[in-house]
Specification:
Elements: H1 2-19, H2 27-33, H3 41-49, H4 51-58, H5 61-93, H6 102-115, H7 124-133, H8 145-153, H9 157-176, H10 182-198
Length: about 200
């Protein structure tokens, strides 16, 4: 019997909840429902006049507490959502400091090798990037290329062998091709320098 009574109470509560949808309420109504000092006469009048409060009065004290907690939760969720939206707007206005690109990191690695060899640490990924892009003048400028040639002098093992093989293959390709643009000529000169150094 007690179970059936609880079920009907829950059904009644759900019906009341559907009639008063808090998600569609205006912020003014939410302010009226928020617990304030009972000493403020304006708030006391607005509480008595609001239909939500009348619904709360019809409920048992336990149901009222549950309902108040639920409304409080919904208000907090709404506040968090508004904060998130305002934070997103703020992020759009402010530029985030971007992470350095792989190119920048590799050039810093090369520069630190040339200037501070005691503090310098070998990084395979940086070396691979440098070896793959050493012929590209846009990625490795003419200022850094002489430093890269010095770095290549100390190259050992399979990295040295594959670099020489790639340089020879590229040289053969450029010898076969007839059209030679200015960028190709600069690339060929870099390839020759690498071959002369490593061979």
């Amino acid at each position: 019997m007690a179970r059936n009574k609880n079920r009907t109470e829950v059904k009644n509560y759900k019906k009341k909840k559907l009639t008063v949808s808090t998600s569609e309420e205006s912020p003014a109504k939410k302010k009226k429902m928020s617990p304030k000092d009972p000493e403020d006469p304006d708030d006391a009048l607005s509480k008595v006049e609001s239909p939500e409060m009348k619904d709360l009065e019809d409920l048992t004290p336990e149901e009222q507490r549950k309902r108040e907690r639920k409304l409080k939760k919904e208000r907090k969720k709404e506040e968090k959502r508004l904060k998130r939206e305002s934070a997103i707007d703020d992020d759009d206005e402010e530029e985030k400091p971007s992470k350095p690109s792989v190119c920048e990191l590799s050039l810093q690695y090369l520069k630190s090798w040339s200037e501070k060899r005691k503090d310098w640490k070998f990084q395979k990924t940086r070396q691979i990037w440098l070896l793959q892009n050493m012929y590209d003048q846009e990625k490795i400028s003419d200022d850094y290329f002489p430093i890269l040639l010095e770095y290549l002098e100390g190259l050992k093992g399979s990295a040295r062998d594959t670099t020489v093989k790639q340089a020879e293959d590229l040289m053969k390709e450029y010898d076969k091709s007839e059209a030679k643009a200015e960028a190709d000529v600069q690339k060929m000169s870099r390839i020759r320098e690498v071959l002369q150094l490593l061979s």
